[in-house]
Amino acid sequence: MSLEGKNVLVVGAGISGLMVATRLQQSGAKVKIVEKGRGFGGRMATRRMEGARLDHGAQFVTVRSEEFGSWIKKWKASGTIQEWFRRAPWDSSPEEHPRYCGVSGMTDIPKALAADLDVDRSVRLTGTEWSTEGWRAHSESGEIYESDILILTAPVPQSVDLLRGSGISLSQEDWDGLCGIDYDPCLSGLLILDGPSGIPEPGAMKLQEGCLVWIGDNSRKGISPDVSAVTVHSTPDFARRYWDVPNEERLPLLQQAAEPYLSAKIVSGAVHRWRFNVPLSFWKSDFFWDESFSLGLAGDAFGGARVEAAALSGWALGSHLRG
Q1: The pLDDT of residue 1 is above 80
Q2: Which of 149, 172, 183, 314 could form a disulfide with 8 if both were Cys (CB 3.0 to 4.6 A apart)?
Q3: Residue-range definition of the domain harbouring residue 154
């Protein structure tokens, strides 16, 4: 397909959306990204709080493929990322696998990708419509985005909602397959401490008991040098149970669960909800593309739950369209 001069709308400025947009822009397409949030990166999210910086979504990036490895080398050379650790007690393999994070937080990576892209943030789409003329996407504010090609990289249930009433008719197998993809939720606790956490090397722990699955020290990680701060992630069951419970009730429970692993006192905290944390099932290929409607989908439910897989899902879709 010739992409020169084609108008492409990419929904979602997570790593997958930014990668597909980069690939298509390189091919001469006119790419617009719309993102409902205020920042870039989706779950590659960093929050500033009381002088601290905390990664409260994805905690690090790994690399297993040569293709993604070239991006890691580029980001290392530009000072965007740094190595956090190579070995951890939970590793099942004796081989070392470097884990990387942004120099000032995980959001550094999507920010670097977005620098050369046209992104409209804080845009909430309410629906899409397709005709032989192309695509139209409607926002809450009344703005209409027109494009020849529509790429959806938001969590699949959100993408499916945008397609309802759009006028397209996917095969029943494809539609049922997309509608069947769901995700586990997670509650992320952002905790400020009055001193060093005492979490053992490498400054993080994977947990298998209680309501927590992860605790990570953002100061040991190198992104919060001035204020000691840790991030905890809940189990899916805990997140479902306390999803709509006020923070005044669920935050103390996360703090109590974290306290046995800490040598410092928790002085304050906050909770962030991730409804679409980890896919429960995956699409049969790295991306979805329907030629008859010029419609594509990509993301972690296609390539895999890791950051690398989500990134390569977007890149693969862009490469497919490039031909």
Answers
A1: no
A2: 149
A3: 1-38+121-182+281-323
